[in-house]
């Protein structure tokens, strides 16, 4: 009888020992700050497209995609060809900020994709290799251009792990950053959601900017994500984003769009700001623009280009392999209309996933844009949030609205804390359930599906599949996710989620 071999070519028993040994050594030697490795105890050894093979021989459908880095999936042929071409040419691989044919081709392709109104009057700054480096550079740029220091950012944002980026993300105290409400339906900060919630969020921002007693001086810039990723997959309403553009333009405040995760077709447009027709003053880009390799840039209006030579630098800003891989990726997405396909396929996936809300009380909300999808898990036995009617009334009065609505007025039927106005409240959202989300993530892994978690309380299961995912693969992803949710809903404790005692309190699972 033939000996079954693993993905590494070893007999299965030996492969399992290799797998376990690597994981044990990682746990013993690497930092406690490691993240994905804790929730995903796998040892990838081979990958192609959507599929990863582990050292133990198991195969997984990868809907993490390097946190959105792999627009074309693992080891796409056009990316590998571009990398090999540079390697075989004998070209230098790292050249700081010197001009090269590889860089020239990358910038040309990048500018070809930029939103109308920016490409013809743009400058690009290559930064260190991570998106957070681009965020820091953008802050430095707008502060130099305006002579001001403050930054406006939004609750739930994530812009990186360096000091300035963390401050804008709400992860560190910084008096130079003022945080504003980001509109959303399901957990609307004003308790109303929908267009009215977005309007109230916009008015809040306008008041902060125009009230001389707000305590917020005119800032150097405003940074926002067109879809909040780590914040829980929350798309910005198009009207609200256009309002932010008008508010900032009227006050000469540069608008910075963080397209690090949303860019290169992920949301159904090449850049997510294009859904609303907005042209920002500055764009920070990373992840997919490097075609799976480290690359980060800031693209901005040429009139902001006032900083002195050397004002921002970085040793690894001249990564030629990343630029070649990035050029190939950008061109492939553009030439094959993968952004449009992401929009269509993402809509179908969202429609099918929303059935989980009807079938399982632990699924509170399903939302997203394109192939950036989130499923929020909630405690099905937790108390609904209270005080919603009072907040609706206060919000209405603040907005100058009447206390009742006409019979023909539309009420929201999905999502937010309250679907109607006073006198017609819907049940509020239940508490987030990070334990259930973690249990679903583990159940997905058992079924050969890799997903990420996010959201304010890490209660959102996130899907970031490559844009090259096929219809058949999308069906397999949805089937495995639905099966995982069903298994956790039936028996949370069996998947590591806490039990609820008869008195309503939780106790740890075995």
TrEMBL record:
Family annotation (Gene3D superfamilies): Aspartate Aminotransferase, domain 1 (3.90.1150.10), Type I PLP-dependent aspartate aminotransferase-like (Major domain) (3.40.640.10)
InterPro entries according to UniProt: Aminotrans_3, Aminotrans_3_PPA_site, Dat, PyrdxlP-dep_Trfase, PyrdxlP-dep_Trfase_major, PyrdxlP-dep_Trfase_small
Disordered as annotated region, ranges: 1-28, 382-434, 489-510
Extent of Basic and acidic residues compositional bias: 16-28, 388-413, 500-510
EC number: 2.6.1.76
Pfam families recorded: Aminotran_3
Pathway: Amine and polyamine biosynthesis; ectoine biosynthesis; L-ectoine from L-aspartate 4-semialdehyde: step 1/3
Cofactor list: pyridoxal 5'-phosphate
Keyword annotations of the record: Aminotransferase, Pyridoxal phosphate, Transferase
Gene Ontology MF, one: diaminobutyrate-2-oxoglutarate transaminase activity
CDD domains, sorted: OAT_like
PANTHER family in UniProt: DIAMINOBUTYRATE--2-OXOGLUTARATE AMINOTRANSFERASE
Family: Belongs to the class-III pyridoxal-phosphate-dependent aminotransferase family.
Protein name: Diaminobutyrate--2-oxoglutarate transaminase
Gene assigned in the entry: pvdH
């Amino acid at each position: 009888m033939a000996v079954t071999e693993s993905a590494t070519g070893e007999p299965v028993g030996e492969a399992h020992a290799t797998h376990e040994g690597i994981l044990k050594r990682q746990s013993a030697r690497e930092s406690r700050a490691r993240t994905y490795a804790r929730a995903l105890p796998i040892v990838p050894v081979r990958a192609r497209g959507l599929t990863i093979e582990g050292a133990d021989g198991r195969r997984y459908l990868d809907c993490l995609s390097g946190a959105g880095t792999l627009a074309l999936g693992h080891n796409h042929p056009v990316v590998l060809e571009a990398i090999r071409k540079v390697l075989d040419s004998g070209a230098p691989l790292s050249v700081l900020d010197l001009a090269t044919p590889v860089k020239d081709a990358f910038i040309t392709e990048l500018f070809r994709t930029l939103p109308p109104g920016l490409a013809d009057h743009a400058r690009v700054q290559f930064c260190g290799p991570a998106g957070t480096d681009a965020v820091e550079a953008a802050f430095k740029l707008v502060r130099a251009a305006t002579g001001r220091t403050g930054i406006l950012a939004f609750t739930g944002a994530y812009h990186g792990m360096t000091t300035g980026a963390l401050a804008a993300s709400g992860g560190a105290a910084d008096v130079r950053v003022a945080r504003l409400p980001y509109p959303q339906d399901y957990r609307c900060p004003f308790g109303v959601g929908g267009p009215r919630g977005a309007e109230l969020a916009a008015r809040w921002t306008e008041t902060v900017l125009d009230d001389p007693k707000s305590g917020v001086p005119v800032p150097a810039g405003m940074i926002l994500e067109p879809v909040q990723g780590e914040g829980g997959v929350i798309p910005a309403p198009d009207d609200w984003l256009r309002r932010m553009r008008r508010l900032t333009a009227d006050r000469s405040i540069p608008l910075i769009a963080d397209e690090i995760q949303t860019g290169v077709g992920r949301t159904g447009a090449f850049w997510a700001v294009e859904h609303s027709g907005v042209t920002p003053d500055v764009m920070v880009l990373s992840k997919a623009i490097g075609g799976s390799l480290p690359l980060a840039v800031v693209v901005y209006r040429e009139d902001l280009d006032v900083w002195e030579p050397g004002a921002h630098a970085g040793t690894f800003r001249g990564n030629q392999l990343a630029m070649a891989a990035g050029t190939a990726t950008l061109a492939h997405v553009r030439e094959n209309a993968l952004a449009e396909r992401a929009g269509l396929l993402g809509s179908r996936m969202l429609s099918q996933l929303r059935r989980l809300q009807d079938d399982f009380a632990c699924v509170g909300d399903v939302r997203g844009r394109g192939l950036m999808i989130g499923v929020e898990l909630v405690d099905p036995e937790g108390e609904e949030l209270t005080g919603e009617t009072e907040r609706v009334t206060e919000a209405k009065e603040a907005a100058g609205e009447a206390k009742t609505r006409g019979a023909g007025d539309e009420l929201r039927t999905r999502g937010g804390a309250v679907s109607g106005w006073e006198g017609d409240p819907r049940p509020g959202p239940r508490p987030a359930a990070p334990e259930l989300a973690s249990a679903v993530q583990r159940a997905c892994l058992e079924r050969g599906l890799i997903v990420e978690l996010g959201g304010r309380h890490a209660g959102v299961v996130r899907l970031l599949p490559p844009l090259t995912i096929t219809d058949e693969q999308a069906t397999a992803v949805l089937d495995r996710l639905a099966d995982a949710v069903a298994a956790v809903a039936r028996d949370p404790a069996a998947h590591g989620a806490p039990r609820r005692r008869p008195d309503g309190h939780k106790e740890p699972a075995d």
